[in-house]
Amino acid sequence: MLPTLTPRALVGLRRSFGAGGRDSYDSPHHYDGVFHNREPARVVESGGRGSIAREFATKGNVGKPAGAVPLVAPRWAEQAADCAATWLGHSTVLLEVGGRWVLTDPVWSERVSPSATVGPRRSHPVPASLDDLPRLDAVLISHDHYDHLDTATIDRLTRLQEVPFVVPLGVGEHLRSWGVPDDRILELDWDESVDLDGLVLSCTEARHFSGRLFRSNLTLWSSWLVEAGDRRVFFGGDTGYTPAFAELGRQRGPVDLTVLPIGAYDVRWPDVHMDPAEAVRTHVELRGEVMLPIHWATFDLAFHPWAAPADWARREAAEAGVRLAQPRPGERFDVGGDLPTTEWWSGL
Fold first, then answer.
1. CB atoms within 10 A of CB 60
2. Are strands 192-196 and 199-204 parallel, antiparallel or unpaired?
3. pTM exceeds 0.85 for this model
4. What's the order of all strands across the beta sheet hosting 165-168?
5. How confident is the model over 91-109, as pLDDT tens digits?
């Protein structure tokens, strides 16, 4: 049975939808009014989205933990480290790269939905307050889906900090509609970079899609390469596997840390979400040193068991000889130090 939208569920919907994209962009990936992947990418197979919604409504708790997810209250130094990371849940990561602070896909809301009362709900709280974050050098957004671009979080970050938002083409339209000053929005196409006083952020290819209402692909999706000093971190955002990652590894690798999605995979959308085996393959092709798996544990967005991505990633990494960091939400690690490797999700 599908949820009923009560008047309370409708509050704020229109604003959360954001803005549509522009009619045209000076980009080879934008034509016929929408953005395109370089290679074909099926989004949903057999039955369509209505069928998928009905299956989600009746699948039960297989995608949720059986108990409380263990959290760590992070403590950050005044100065960012050379290369470290704190996973805050799903795709939200506080990166420390060459002494700079970079926050990825910040989502602090209880639900990833235009509604505050309907839609996928957190399996664990965010382990840190937005107010407690250090002074950020940049916020990176991978694309405009609700589990990566959260209106309430953007509103609060805009008020709390003077940080620039670095986003793929078109996503700036959402931010402007929510009151983010234009001089704090930097929009890039694939293969473009911006240098923020020695912090170089490169918009790199991803294989995905976008959309917050009924039309898809009005804005671009991306992964990101973060460079400062001699340190290099790759943030995958949300993507299916693409050979473009191997090319990026040849041209711009090696990479000290890869931050790669491992969850919400399914045979019905194999082109737009990686599974853990593809994530490990991507790490190897990027010539990564340490891999941090993300995009699992926080929101129930597919049909696989809650802990399946973590177990599968662990097996694949062991077989490939990959150094894998699997922190609890809020647990910080330094790429050059001991990595968190305990199976904290076991039994949940």
1. 7
2. antiparallel
3. yes
4. 185-188, 165-168, 138-140, 100-104, 92-97, 83-89, 332-334
5. 999 999 999 999 999 999 9
